[in-house]
Amino acid sequence: QSTNRPTPGGGRPKPAPKPKPQVPQCKALYAYDAQDTDELSFNADDIIDIIKE
């Protein structure tokens, strides 16, 4: 026996999440320790967002 109950969430599809703004990225092949204050330290396999070239 079936019943006509509304589906959870009202049967409406959820809106798709807004995509993040795409920025170029790179993956570090090796670790690097900054030698100066204007440099960036990172570990191997870190994903780095490139915001300015």
Automatic annotation (TrEMBL):
Keywords for this entry? ANK repeat, SH3 domain
Q: Which InterPro entries match?
A: SH3-like_dom_sf, SH3_domain
Which sequence ranges form a coiled-coil region, renumbered to this chain? none
Residues annotated as region Disordered?
A: 1-23
**Domain called SH3: residue spans:** 21-53
Out of the domains of life, which is the source? Eukaryota
User: Which function does this protein serve?
Assistant: Induces bone resorption, acting probably through a signaling cascade which results in the secretion of factor(s) enhancing osteoclast formation and activity.
The molecule here is called Osteoclast-stimulating factor 1
